[in-house]
Amino acid sequence: MSGVFFLQQLLNGISFGALLFLIASGFTLVFGLMRISNLAHGAFYLLGAYIAVVTVAVTHSFWVGLLVGAVAAAVIGLGLERGLLRRVRGKEMPEVLLTVGVSFVIADLVLWIFGGDPKSITSGNGAPSGALVIGDFTYPQYRLFIIGVTLVIGTALFLAQRYSKFGAIVRAGVDNREAASALGIDIDRVFTWVFVVGAALAGVAGAIGSGLLSLSPSSGTEMLLYAMVVVIVGGLGSITGAAVGAVLIGLIDAFTKVLLPEFAYFTIFAPMALILVFRPRGLFGRAA
Amino acid sequence: MIRKVSAAAGATFAAALLLTACAPSSGLAGDGGATNAPADGEVFKIGVLAPMTSWAGAIGVDMQQGWEMFWDEYGDTAGSFTIETVWEDTASDPDTALTKARKLVEEDGVDAVVGPVLASEGLVVGDYLTQAGVANLAQTAADDLTQRLASPLVVRTGAVTSSQPNFAGGDWAAKQGYRTAATLCVDYAFGWESCGGFVSAFTAAGGEVTTQLWYPGDASDLSSYVSQLASLDVDVIFVGSAGGTDSSNFFRSANDFGLLAKTPIVSNCCTTDQAILQDVGDIALGQISASNWAEGNDDPEVAAFVERYESAFGILPSSYAQGMYASAEILAQVLEASTSKPTGEALVTAIKGVDLGDTIIGGGGLDELGSPVAPIFIREVVRRDDGTLVNAVIETYDDVSQFWTFDPEAYLANPPFTQEFQQQ
Questions:
Q1: Is A132 within a domain?
Q2: Residues A45, A208: contact at Cβ < 8 Å?
């Protein structure tokens, strides 16, 4: 493997991992606090993505598309949390089934409105496009851009969780919901906000992802699956875990496809299976 | 495994049906009886199996439009028969397709079944309909449907085999002077057969295939494969994808990694299909592919069909729409020439006699195994006057057989195409 080729694969792995992190971070955040496996998370990705595609086509601005996609996902997230999930809070099975149901409805609406043909965000329009060429080394600028955006968002999430007051409240809620509540924290409100942030992150991931991978109405389920794998590897509820898990899966995926192509089907799921066997709580998860 | 079991169960059930004399072909022997003197306006009932929901839902819509457009233009009477169509949704799933095929035969008592389109559904349904004695106008490309698993009740009216166009693609590539090739195909039967067609004809014409890559059907990110292809030193690259997001993702990555500028690419039908061109846009300009359908064909018949379709539905017809339209044309011709209602084997035999030159397929006929010997087009993506990207015809291979130029007997003695078996 030549140096250039190795570097390309390394960046392929990291950039795909970066997208995985954007999806997984919201999923893990919601799970960490609310103990809900939000299976509508993929639908938020889908919604953010399709809305961003339409917005960019109309406004010719990638950034407006990103913003509108994220806000749309957040608004739907707010509606789902306030309007539906709240009614079944604490009942695990109804919560899961409700989110599955919502994801089906959204995917079918998308099929109805946009049809089943592949769609993607028009390249350019304020986002980097084309290739970066340095001597023999060629690399798509958009993929580097994804890595950059993810670094900014990841750092912001980490700092907010660690140093802001809201972060402290969330952490308190994760550690001990009852005690936090007894201290006068309106935990219901915190739930709503975390849910909305999670949905917005999925929307951002959708907008950015639709410039990398074309969309179809089943993209949401596909991405949800990736998010779950990353979160299982990284540990449920941990942002650091999501980051490490995402990059790990991305790298394993990129290099196995080249070095051991016959195992390409297992690259995503084999690490998850191994983790489940040897370290069920994930790399950074807390013991239950 | 589950599919095998349910196919076997279907077969048993169908056999039981035959015993109870419900078989639609029972009146075909022609030795007297009411079936020989049809009343005017006798109903010919056609069951159509199409994926209207789930991942292949977009294909089902195209199929419906192609089918309905023909009968709207033609009227719903063919010869002395009134046409009635019953639609069933396969939900893009072979088990559902089988259940719906049974429903069409047992409850609706259809005289023929058109579809399904997906390879996984096609083989299961073809097997069941053979047991049930009902003619099947298949829309699927699975090679073996008219090869090692050929049936006297199955005829491929709406498609060609997966390998068929790519024989021509391989031959064309060799004729351009390309000596070495690498391939990237999806890792299941459709991809093996697409690649097999290209590799067999390219090597037969003196070329050499140095690298073959296979990507899993569930892969989202194809960048690893694309950067691998970009690092190779070959004259041409063949891509056999199943259409949809894979193909879009391939072109986007290939553009971003400089592959499109570096190495010429020849692809199969679906990699440059209309849906993909709409998605990826100008980067696909100039791309070469091989298919039995070209929406940018300037043949007057085809151009008129495309224009009518476009004004009716606002989009260009896909190969699925064309396949259904052609199947309806063929069926209408057969019914016009029939005095008694043709079903089962008699229907299939009559269909095999149709001249495909009278249809939108544009020439040729069906071979004795029921697969088209038809024109294959080498296509190039060009911009039409109104700005739309279309696949225009740059070269036509007439009368291409599912066996290309190989000896059918030797061909059928070989195993079907797999990753390991790529060269006839």
A1: yes
A2: no
Examine the pLDDT at B2 and tell me if it is beyond 70. Answer: no
How far, in Å, CA of A156 to CA of B206, rounded?
59
Domain identity same for B205 and B153: no
Q: In angstroms, rounded to a whole number, what is the distance separating the alpha carbons of residues B388 and B419?
A: 36
Cβ of residue A173 closer than 8 Å to a chain B Cβ = no
Classify residue B184: in a domain, yes or no. Answer: yes
The pLDDT of residue A286 is 74
Residue A238 counted as domain residue: yes
Provide the residue range defining the domain that includes B113. Answer: 2-21+38-160+312-352
Other beta carbons less than 10 A from residue B419's beta carbon:
16
* B224 → closest Cβ in A117, A214, A254: A254
Instruction: Give domain status of residue A126, yes or no.
Output: yes
* Structural domain total, chain B: 2
The whole model's pTM is what?
0.86
**Beta pairing, strands B389-400 & B372-383:** antiparallel
Q: For A250-284, give the secondary structure using H, E and C.
A: HHHHHHHHHHCHHHHHHCCHHHHHHHHHHCCCCCC
User: In Å, how far is B54's CA from the nearest CA of chain A?
Assistant: 8
Strand bridging mode A131-134 / A137-140: antiparallel
**Per-residue model confidence as pLDDT tens digits over A157-190:** 999 988 998 888 888 887 888 888 888 888 888 8
pLDDT in tens, B377-403: 999 999 999 999 999 999 999 999 999
| pLDDT greater than 70 at residue B418 | yes
What are the tens digits of pLDDT across the range A75-85? Answer: 999 999 999 99
DSSP type of residue A119:
B
User: Which residues from chain B sit within 8 angstroms of residue A254, using beta carbons?
Assistant: 223-224
Cβ of A120 under 8 Å from any chain B Cβ? yes
Residue of A nearest to B212 (CA): A261
Whether residue B275 lies inside any domain: the answer is yes
Q: How far A161 CA lies from chain B's nearest CA (Å)?
A: 31
Name chain A contacts of B187, Cβ cutoff 8 Å: 264-265
Q: Is A215 on the interface with B (CB under 8 A)?
A: yes
Q: Does A280 touch chain B (CB under 8 A)?
A: no
Minimal Cα distance from A9: which residue of B?
Answer: B224
Measure A131 CA to nearest chain B CA, in Å.
Answer: 5
- Residues in chain A with CB shorter than 8 Å from the CB of B231 are 2, 4-5
pLDDT of B11 above 50: no
**ipTM of the complex in this document:** 0.88
How far is A95 from A110, CA to CA, in rounded Å? 23
**Alpha helices of B75-141 — where are they, by DSSP H?**
94-106, 119-132
Chains A and B form CB pairs within 8 A to the count of: 106
Does position A287 have pLDDT exceeding 80, yes or no? no
Confidence class of residue B321 from pLDDT cuts 50, 70 and 90?
Answer: very high
| A68: three-class secondary structure by DSSP | helix
Cis peptide bond prior to A280, omega within 30° of 0: no
Residues on chain A touching B59 (C-beta within 8 angstroms): 116
Confidence of residue A1 (pLDDT cuts 50, 70, 90): low
For B228-287, what is each residue's pLDDT tens digit?
A: 999 999 999 999 998 888 899 999 999 989 899 999 999 999 999 998 999 999 999 999
